[in-house]
């Protein structure tokens, strides 16, 4: 489980310091292990980033899915409100995945980790909303919150939830095919 502990510390380090600034020597100090141990588990800075993103992905999905409501529109609005706490406590600078992709746009492993994270969020929104056909719109709102929260703050949550209500009303008004 040492690799998991290292990944947690790397996630924290990248969250606090970004991706360009910390050197491997800095990451080694922040991870609390020897350079040899760090390289044993993660042989490059890019693999350290993937480990941090994977750790964050697991934490985030658990956190986001643990909204107080079970399904439907209520789950989505509750999850978005829950997202406000995540942004305050874990992502005050915005989405770590998007930051990693911006710092390493040509790295295939980082790009795949980010894409998987985003696909899983969209899938969770499809399942928990009870309306898979709204998953792209809900995902777009989620991403807007993650991108806009550092600039706008909590008011973006209220705006997104008004849009969720409008989406569900519009969807329910559409005639259903039999």
From TrEMBL:
PROSITE patterns per UniProt: HTH_TETR_2 (PS50977)
InterPro entries: Homeodomain-like_sf (IPR009057), HTH_TetR (IPR001647)
Segments traversing the membrane: none
DNA bind region: 23-42
Domain of life from the UniProt record: Bacteria
UniProt domain HTH tetR-type: residue ranges: 1-60
Keywords for the protein's UniProt record, in alphabetical order: DNA-binding, Transcription, Transcription regulation
Pfam families linked: TetR_N
UniProt name for this protein: TetR/AcrR family transcriptional regulator
Organism of origin: Vibrio ulleungensis
């Amino acid at each position: 489980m040492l690799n998991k502990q290292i990944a947690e510390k790397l996630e924290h380090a990248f969250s606090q310091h970004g991706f360009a600034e910390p050197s491997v020597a800095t990451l080694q100090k922040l991870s609390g292990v020897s350079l040899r141990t760090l390289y044993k588990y993660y042989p490059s800075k890019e693999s350290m980033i993937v480990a941090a993103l994977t750790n964050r992905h697991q934490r985030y999905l658990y956190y986001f899915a643990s909204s107080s409501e079970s399904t439907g529109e209520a789950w989505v609005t509750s999850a978005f409100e829950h997202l406000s706490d995540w942004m305050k406590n874990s992502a005050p600078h915005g989405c770590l995945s998007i930051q990693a992709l911006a710092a390493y746009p040509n790295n295939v492993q980082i790009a795949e980790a980010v894409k998987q994270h985003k696909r899983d969020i969209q899938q969770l929104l499809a399942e928990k909303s009870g309306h898979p056909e709204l998953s792209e719109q809900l995902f777009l709102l989620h991403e807007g919150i993650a991108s806009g929260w550092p600039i706008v703050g909590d008011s973006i949550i209220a705006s997104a939830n008004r849009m969720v209500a409008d989406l569900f009303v519009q969807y329910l008004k559409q005639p259903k095919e039999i």
